[in-house]
Design a protein that fits this description.
about 425 residues; nine-stranded mixed beta sheet; five-stranded mixed beta sheet; 13 helices; about 25% helix
């Protein structure tokens, strides 16, 4: 049986359902599943918070005996391997489902094609590719981590009428109105991690959490590119590190000589997180999320150049308003200890090599990353070709003198991006651009 408009209607509903838990299912994708019998939905579910149980098993349990002879609509190919839970393909077979309609085939080599083959071998009719473009869009973060070994990167910029994203020495400047800012809060809530440069972290002293009522618990991991550990201990980020994880990305050149055997920086020790210990060890509920940096292996795999990378002009800690880098090794060790005591994770990885940093984040299950500032950090990711989606807000506000120029506007979007839509939030215009997955 080919895919019909009837199938597409139910798959569209399954895709909408899958978005409910974006950014909240750990390393697993947020999948939607509907069980439909005689045109009526008898079971529905989205991957549970934390990633388990999977959508299919929950939807089947809700449908119960009504699942026999029904059609299952699943946004991602059902798993066929034994992990922490039994395969979803086997659950579909056990419940007697007659047909399975799939939007996207899973690129995970443990699953890819095997889930479909398992179902067909059991006599279940399978049709794949229903609303595939829409399904891939909803699964963009998971698919990027699986196929590119890095998080899906969204760059968000709010630009004034005169092309500025802020004002020098003014801290945070409201460019967009409340409607647009609420939309950004929703974007943060469905993203695994958010990243800024040390200049922005010091000048603006941002919190980078989700502040929309009811969504506060969905705040992303907060990451600061901080080569010299200049993040103030009195900053909002440090003061809240035990409530919402904070990672500072420090230069490998500042690691303590006494930290590890044979003079190796923590990032070079496979399976070890500089401040979190062995990867995979159980953490307490309030422990910061450990990140393992495997820069040595990533450099070899991706052919990253060995030439020194210098800090971006304007992102130097000493130049950032109110920021001072530690003066010597002893001060550095003291600052590191104080940050860690406050619950901040220190990741040793060249902050200005995103092609190394992003795979390091992916090894810890970060599938989506929101880059929010500043201008030079945005330009760093753009020039590296590691931005997948651009959200460009344009507001009628005029910044005027001492404005910080935006790294791009609607007239110079990099090649390879397609304009995918325009929305209005009050007087503010949002244009979205995406690369193909």
């Amino acid at each position: 049986m080919s895919i019909t408009p009837h199938d597409e209607r139910f798959m569209a509903a399954a895709i909408r359902l899958s978005r409910w838990h974006l950014g909240r299912t750990a390393t697993n994708p947020s999948v939607g599943c509907l069980i439909v019998r005689d045109g009526v939905i008898v079971g529905r579910a989205v991957t549970a918070l934390g990633g388990r149980p999977h959508a299919e098993t929950q939807a089947l349990a809700e449908a119960g005996a009504l699942a026999r002879g029904a059609t299952a609509y699943v946004t991602l190919e059902p798993c066929s391997h034994h992990g922490r839970t039994p395969p979803c393909a086997e659950a579909l077979i056990a419940y007697g489902v007659a047909r399975v309609v799939i939007s996207v085939t899973d690129p995970d080599p443990r699953v890819s094609g095997r889930g479909i083959a398992t179902l067909r071998e059991a006599g279940i009719e399978v049709d794949a590719g229903a609303l595939e473009a829409e399904g891939r869009h909803s699964l963009a973060a998971y698919l990027t981590r699986q196929t590119k070994n890095r998080p899906y990167v969204t760059l968000k910029l709010a630009v004034s009428a005169d092309g500025m994203i802020g004002r020098e020495g003014a801290g945070q400047v409201a460019i967009t109105g409340p409607e647009a800012r609420a939309q950004v809060q929703a974007l943060r809530a469905e993203t695994d991690a958010i990243l800024v440069g040390i200049g922005t972290a010091i000048a603006d002293d941002p919190l980078l959490t989700v502040r929309s009522p009811g969504l506060e618990a969905q705040s992303p991991i907060r990451i600061v590119l901080d080569p010299s550990l200049a993040l103030p201990l009195t900053s909002k980020l440090v003061e809240t590190a035990r409530q919402v994880p904070v990672i500072v990305v420090a230069s490998e050149e500042v690691w303590p000589l006494s930290a590890d055997a044979e003079g190796l920086p923590p990032s070079a020790l496979p399976g070890i997180s500089p401040t979190g210990g062995e990867i995979g060890k159980r953490r307490g509920p309030n422990s910061p999320v450990p990140v393992s940096n495997k820069s040595a292996s990533v450099n070899a795999a991706q052919g990253a150049g060995s030439d020194p990378i210098f800090p971006l002009v304007g992102e130097m800690p000493g130049r950032a308003e109110g920021g001072n880098a530690p003066a010597d090794a002893r001060d550095m060790d003291s600052r590191r200890a104080a940050l860690e005591a406050a619950g901040v994770e220190v990741l040793y990885c060249n902050p200005y090599h995103p092609e190394v940093l992003l795979p390091a984040l992916a090894t810890r299950g970060i599938s989506s990353l929101l880059v929010e500032g500043g201008a030079k950090t945005a330009r760093l990711f753009l020039e590296a070709g590691l931005v997948d989606r651009i959200q460009l807000y344009q507001a009628p506000v005029v910044i005027g003198e001492r404005g910080i120029e935006s790294p791009l506007d609607a007239t110079d979007i990099p090649s390879g991006f397609a304009h995918t839509g325009t929305l209005m939030f009050g007087e503010d215009r949002l244009d979205e651009y995406e690369r193909g997955l």
